[in-house]
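Before a colleague's protein record goes any further, I have to sign it off. Would you go through it and say whether the fold makes sense for this chain? Take the sequence as given and treat only the tokens as open to question. The record follows directly below this note.
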Amino acid sequence: MNGKEFLEKLKAEIHKAVVGKDDVIELLAVALLSEGHVILEGIPGVAKTTIAKSFAKAIGLEFSRIQLTPDLLPADIIGTVYYDQRSGQFKIKKGPIFANVVLADEINRAQPKTQSALLEAMQEGQVTIEGNTLPLPRPFLVIATKNPLEFEGVYDLPEAQLDRFMIHIDVGYPDKNEELEMLLRKDRGEFMEVRQVFTPSQILTLVAKVKGVKTSEEVLHYLYEIIARTRRDERLLIGASPRAAEHLLYTSKALAFLNGRDYVIPDDIKEMAVHVLAHRLLIRAEYELEGLKSEDIVKEILDEVEVPV
């Protein structure tokens, strides 16, 4: 199975429960195949949770949902050790982090130490419970949702933690045709249950194929120049990190694979740059007050950097 076949089959299955959102589905597939994690940002009611659950179901992976709240503790996520009176032994009770696709709902509602426990698991691919180190399953994808309208009782992720998320996806309102189709299908009861159309072993095979996608030296220089421009931009306090450069490379390889190629072209990098870089950049206060957004800066840089032939 090639990348194009995988993406078409995935979209067709998810569309049984979701209208449109092809761009979101493609970006989730990119994150899965490049072994990264995602922030889904959007107001309540735009199908963030439905998309995540349908995605996990279609690819045949174990799914868990963590509703993050201020009173949630790290042990509630990673698990704990308890004493089993029947056996007279201490046993490990695994937390909801032990799934292939983990939906961390409203991540900015959790207190910092709970956020840190989740992000450490994402980074290391393992958790430590009372001195016992346990590997997390593969593939492993965290989809963290964030409500941009919440300002009270929230703990925004600091820049160092945002840098661990490979892709940021804005989930906006559907267009007129999509919303009318959604209402029509709801009225007629035409939404169906998403079924499993892939196996975990097939997904791991695709992940291995993505790693084999080639990138020429010229394209790597192009990618580096985009990263370097963010570090030289006077409007930014923080430019893109070396990790951001890695993530841009990995996601571009995954996108190339999904487009049916075994090599990266500049258009792959251009398509992924805003999603990979914008959420990591910190704008100086005076420019932020003028309404400048990090997405605008990334787009400007893409217009300025010479594209290799």
Q: What stands out?
A: The first strand starts at residue 38 and ends at 41. The mean pLDDT is 90.
